[in-house]
Amino acid sequence: MPSKVAVQAHYSELEALTGHVRSSAMVLTEHLSDWIDAVQQDDLLSLHPSWQASSVIATPSSPA
């Protein structure tokens, strides 16, 4: 088990890391639906739910 001194030495780093993880979770939870809406509005084939790589990417044996 680490000593109290070792834990305290890393406390500020752990506290900062915890803050960054929490803020990134807030970004995801608060803005994810906005991002999904923007992606859906663009209707990009590569991000479309029914997209399949085999139907879009040509292989050497099949012409594009």
**Helix share of residues?**
55-70%
Mean pLDDT: 77
- Largest sheet properties: none
- With helices defined by DSSP (H or I, 4 residues minimum), what is the helix count? 2
Could you list the spans in which at least 5 consecutive residues all have pLDDT below 50?
A: none
**Envelope shape:** rod-shaped
Strand-and-helix sequence, N→C? HH
For the termini, the CA-CA separation is 61 Å
> How is the quaternary structure best described?
single chain
Broad structural category = mainly alpha
Integer tally of domains: 1
Beta strand count: 0
Tell me the β content: under 5%
Radius of gyration: 23 Å
Write the layout of secondary structure elements.
Blueprint lengths: L3 H39 L10 H4 L8
What characteristics describe this protein?
single chain; 64 residues; mainly alpha; 2 helices; 0% strand; rod-shaped
Description:
This protein has 64 residues and is mostly helical. The protein has one domain. 67% of the residues lie in helices and 0% in strands.
Summarize, please.
This protein has 64 residues and is mainly α.
